[in-house]
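User: Teach me something about this protein's shape.
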Amino acid sequence: MKTIQITMDEKLLARLDADTETKRDGRSAVLRRAVAEYLKRRRRAEIAEAYKRAYGKTAGLGEEFESWEHQGQWPPE
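Assistant: First, the predicted structure itself:
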């Protein structure tokens, strides 16, 4: 592990220090878990955004397949 130095608002630090999980596991452990969770959520959001761009209504099939968009539909009964 690597030691780092961060700046934190005093009120936020007091709230962190008052937390039972922080008292049990220590600041570093709690902050490591918080950062890991933050990065996991960011990655999920990036993936969701990529899916929206790729498969969203505005994405379409691209110029090369422009006239084929309706060819994959079921025929009328």
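Now, about its shape. The chain has three helices and no strands. The two ends are 66 Å apart (CA to CA). If you'd like, I can walk through any region in more detail.
User: That's plenty for now, thanks!
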